[in-house]
Structures are given as C-alpha cells and as structure tokens.
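Colleagues,

For the teaching module next term, I've prepared a clean inverse folding example: a structure given as tokens, and then the sequence designed for it. I'd like students to try predicting residues themselves before seeing the answer, so please don't circulate the second half yet.
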C-alpha cells in the first residue's frame, strides 16, 4: 500500500495492473526502508506502524484501489499463459538454492551452498539492525558496521519488526519468492514497452517468452569446460560469473536488480512525459541503490552521467542531469556515512579475472593458453601475447554469456540505441558492467568485483529474446522448430545441474539441535559481547559429513543465533569489511592458551560478558 499511495499518479492510467503493482511494490520497499532507517536513527522504530497506518488510510481515501483491475485471461491468450507459466516455473527454479536452508530438521537446522556463510551473515546483521541503526558490527563487537551496504538487511529487520515473521523465513523464502516474481513481471512489461512498436505485437509475444526463459534459466558455457574435463555438465561459474540459478543467493543483488528494472520503467515513462513526479521517483530509486548494492549504484550513476551529457548536447534536456546530480548527492551522503573513504576499495588490476580464469584448474584451466601468455610476455613477443590475451578475453565474455551472445545481434540496429535515452542508459550499464570487472578488483576479496558483471547477464538475456524471435520468424517451420528445441536444451544445462545439487538430503552444513538449544539460551540472556574459539580449519578433516557449521567454514553463526555481537567471528567477512581483525584473532588464540587468571584483564578490557565454547574443540578454561 505505501508504494501504491506514492506512485498512483506516476504511471499512465492505461498502464497494466501488474506493472502498476510491480512499480508500486519496489517503490514501496525502497521508501519503507528509508522510513525505517530514519526512524531507527531517532530510536523511534515503533513509529513505522503509524507510517503503515497512514498509508492505509490514504490508500482508502484516495481510492487507489480503483487503479487495479485484474483482467481474466481468455483461453486463446496462450502467449500470455505461457509467459505466466514461465514466471511461475522460473520463480520455483530460482528459489531452489535458498528454500530449504534455515529450516528445522530432525538433526537441527540445515544450510545448503553459500547460505552456510552468506545467509548466516545476513541473519547476524539483521539481528544487530533490529537493536540499533547504524548497527554494531556483529562479528567485530564494539565497532559500528562500515564498508557494507545494509539496506537489504534493514528491509528484513523492518519486515520482521512489523510482521514478526522469523528472519530465516524472510531471508530464505519470502523475499526470494517476491524478488523472482518481481523480476518476471518487471521483465515481461519491459519487453512490451521496449519492443512492441519496433517489432510488432506477435513478435513481442514470442520475444516475451524467450526473454523470460533466458532471464530465469540461462547458464554459461561452463558445461562445455566440465564435459571436456570429464567432470559432468556443471561449471556454472567456470568463467567466474554466477548465473541466473544463483540469483537469490545474493539477495542484495536480487533487490538491486528489481530496483534497476523499476528505474528502467520510470525512465521509459519519463521519455514520453515531463511529469516531475517521475524525476523524483527516479532520484529516490537511483540515490538509494548504493545502500542496497553499491556495485549497482556505480553502474547506474555512471550511466546517468553519460546519458545526461548526451541529452544536454542533443536535446538541451536537463532532466537526466538533475537526476544524476541529486541521486549522486544522496549516494555520496549514504556512502560517506558508512564507508571509510581513505581505504582503497577498488584496485586497478586489468585482466585479473580473465587471467585467473585461464590459469586456475578450478575454472577453465587452459594450461597451453596460460603458458603462451606468460612466455610471450617474458620474452617480449608482444603479437603472440596480444593474441593470447584476446582469445582469453573472448573466452571470458562468451563463456559467461552462454547463449545470451544472441543479444549481440541487437547491435545491428545500434543507431536506434542513440535515439532513445532509455535504450542508451541500458546500453551504457551493460558496457560498464562488463568493463569494470575486467579492469578492477576489490581490496580485501578481489573476486567480489565480479558482481559488477551480473546486470550484464540480465540485460543480455533481455535482448536475446527479440533476436531469437526474429530468427524464428525468418526460418521455415522445420528449421525454426529445430532451432527452438536446441535453444531450450542448451540454454539451461549447467543451471539445471547446479539446481540439482541443492536436492541432496544431507546439508552442506548444520547446527545440531543441542547446539541450537545452547544458542537460544544465550539469546535469552542480557545483551553483551561474546567470545568464541577461533575457527579451526583442521577440524573439518577430522569429522565426517554432514559437517557442523563451526567446522564447515568461518561463519557468523554464533552471532546469528545468539543475537549478540561477537568479539571476533567470520574471518572472510571481516576481510571484506576491511576490519583490523588479525589482531583480535591473535588475541583470541592467546586467551585460550593462557590460564584464565592471566586472561581476566583481556575480558574486562574488551567488555566480554560471555564465552561460547563448544565441547568439540576439546578446550578447557
């Protein structure tokens, strides 16, 4: 309702109901996150209930419900039915990696895939946001959270505060379903708005089907690499980039994607209208993005700047410049309030991903190509070196895109891109999305920068649809049928293999029922800093699967389920956050090696109130 109230006059009255719902939902999520953020700073979180009540009253008083009239599909609208079924099937497909994590089983609570680390980190962070804004770092107690975009976690905390739905259900089930449905609806209407006038109604219907299929199911060409190595048909990230199946394993990206899709719709409306409300909504969406997903904000703001200059020189139109300046100011304020400016977040390292892809046996691992590059560089054989790097570059691009490379066919009509500011905006985002990870890595964890590439996967899927549809209409019936069958078979190969890995009965990591009981007891105690034994990687080799989460990896699970801040936990995440965690790591190890009398001062100096020490470590105080 809040989104409907704020956007009821932004879209044309003739806009489809589900498009209105999509734009209202995403706008409402962003605005609600802002409201809870401000109220949290003022220690007035309970006032968010009043905000919801006011929006409900306005929804009724303004009769906003009159804008929503559902159309019952007729039996002959099979194109629409096919699109609907792909959205439903694609949503089910994309929530496979998350749905089972965080549920209770006979052995306790299970976690699959990256949820063992990333999902647990989000639970820990949500618990701290529920206590205060800005939040304390849950894995580095006593310090505020820095160098992290936490508005997605803020949204989870706000939803939990209002609804009392368990955080695990919101994180692993409710919002993944909502995001995947949103991507489908937003994409479906984006196809109609972008292509209907260019290719006609019938081709647009076919385009929508193929585009949705690519958006939900497309994988990389990594299955070819794995097949050649005799390792099956997996290889989702053999070329580094995770594919559509892993969409919800990175929830900050998932929410940033639906915000970007909504921004596309707003800019399409702005192309035909001069309504100031559209400019305001575009500013809110673009300006907020940095706190949902910083990588997405960099792409959007950079693209806005390019389009702004283009519009000024071509049409003397200042609207994009206004959107860029104000949204950049909002982004700068959010960035400076949460990120350490003097830390080098990005490092210039051209071809780091490409070369590591070629060199690593866990990726492509093409030894001869790797040797050709290094030997030619050492010997100064620059033509051979350039050829090796060019081949590696092409492998990186086409390997990650998979059959999305069909989208390159849309560049035949590149002149049309420069005639439409929204198309130009989308095009610039795609270019930046591919170029930035080729040239830069992130300090702390260099591979994090590959996330810049994710929006390019979505946009190339979006533009693969019309190219496929055009080819289908140009081929005769037999060839068209064969072509479509090949596309349907080869597009989702390694995505299906990846999805299959999440159906195993044995979780990748678990928290036993007994340990959960201990953590729940700790959660019921008064707040205070917790000290636990540092992660021991050797423990994993001594225990049979399924592994307890404390042996699987260094995670934030104690903080997540005790709802308390840890003196030190989750070393990989601390590395990403650029904390000075190594000093605390040494201090923690020293504490457990010394007699408790010698370590009492350590506990007092660091305000440690609890020690959490599982028996499996075989450590006595």
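(Answer key — instructors only)
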């Amino acid at each position: 309702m809040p989104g409907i109230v704020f956007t009821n006059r932004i879209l044309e009255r003739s806009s489809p109901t589900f498009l209105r719902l999509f734009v209202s939902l995403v706008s409402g999520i962003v605005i609600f996150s802002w409201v809870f953020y401000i109220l949290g700073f003022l220690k007035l979180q309970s006032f968010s209930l009043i905000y919801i009540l006011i929006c409900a009253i306005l929804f009724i008083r303004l009769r906003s419900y009159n804008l929503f009239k559902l159309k019952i599909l007729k039996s002959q609208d099979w194109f629409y039915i096919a699109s609907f079924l792909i959205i439903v099937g694609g949503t089910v497909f994309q929530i496979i990696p998350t749905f089972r994590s965080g549920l209770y089983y006979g052995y306790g609570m299970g976690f699959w895939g990256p949820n063992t680390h990333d999902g647990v980190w989000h639970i820990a962070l949500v618990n701290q946001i529920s206590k205060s804004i800005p939040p304390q770092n849950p894995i580095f107690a006593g310090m505020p959270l820095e160098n992290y975009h936490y508005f997605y976690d803020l949204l989870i905390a706000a939803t939990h505060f209002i609804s009392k739905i368990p955080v695990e259900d919101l994180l692993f089930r409710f919002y993944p379903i909502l995001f995947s449905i949103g991507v489908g609806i937003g994409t479906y209407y984006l196809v109609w708005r972008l292509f209907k006038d260019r290719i006609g109604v019938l081709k647009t219907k076919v385009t929508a089907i193929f585009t949705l299929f690519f958006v939900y199911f497309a994988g990389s060409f990594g299955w070819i690499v794995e097949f050649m190595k005799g390792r099956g048909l997996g290889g989702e990230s053999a070329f580094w980039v995770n594919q559509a199946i892993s969409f919800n394993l990175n929830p900050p990206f998932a929410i940033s994607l639906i915000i970007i899709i909504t921004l596309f719709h707003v800019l399409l409306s702005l192309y035909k209208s001069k309504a100031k409300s559209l400019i305001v909504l575009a500013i809110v969406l673009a300006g907020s993005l940095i706190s949902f997903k910083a990588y997405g904000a960099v792409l959007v703001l950079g693209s806005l700047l390019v389009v702004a200059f283009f519009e000024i020189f071509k049409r003397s139109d200042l609207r994009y410049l206004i959107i860029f300046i104000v949204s950049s100011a909002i982004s700068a304020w959010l960035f400076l309030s949460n990120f350490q400016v003097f830390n080098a977040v990005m490092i210039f390292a051209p071809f780091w991903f490409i070369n590591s892809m070629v060199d690593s046996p866990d990726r492509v691992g093409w030894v001869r190509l790797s040797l050709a590059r290094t030997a030619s560089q050492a010997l100064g054989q620059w033509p051979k070196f350039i050829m090796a790097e060019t081949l590696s570059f092409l492998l990186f691009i086409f390997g990650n895109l998979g059959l999305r490379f069909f989208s390159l066919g849309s560049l035949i009509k590149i002149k049309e891109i420069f005639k439409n500011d929204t198309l130009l905006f989308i095009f610039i985002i795609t270019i930046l999305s591919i170029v930035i990870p080729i040239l830069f890595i992130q300090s702390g964890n260099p591979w994090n920068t590959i996330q810049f590439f994710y929006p390019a996967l979505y946009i190339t899927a979006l533009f693969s649809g019309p190219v496929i549809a055009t080819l289908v209409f140009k081929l005769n019936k037999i060839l068209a049928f064969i072509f479509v069958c090949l596309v349907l078979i080869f597009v989702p190969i390694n995505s299906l293999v990846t999805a299959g890995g999440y159906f195993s009965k044995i979780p990748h990591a678990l928290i036993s029922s007994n340990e959960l009981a201990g953590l729940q007891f700790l959660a019921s105690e008064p707040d205070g800093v917790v000290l636990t034994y540092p992660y021991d990687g050797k423990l994993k080799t001594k225990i049979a699967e399924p592994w307890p989460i404390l042996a699987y990896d260094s995670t934030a699970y104690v903080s997540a389920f005790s709802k308390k801040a840890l003196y030190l936990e989750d070393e990989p995440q601390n590395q990403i956050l650029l904390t000075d965690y190594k000093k605390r790591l040494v201090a923690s190890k020293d504490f457990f090696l010394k007699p408790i009398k010698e370590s009492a001062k350590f506990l007092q100096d660091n305000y440690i109130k609890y020690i959490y020490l599982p028996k499996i470590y075989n450590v006595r105080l």
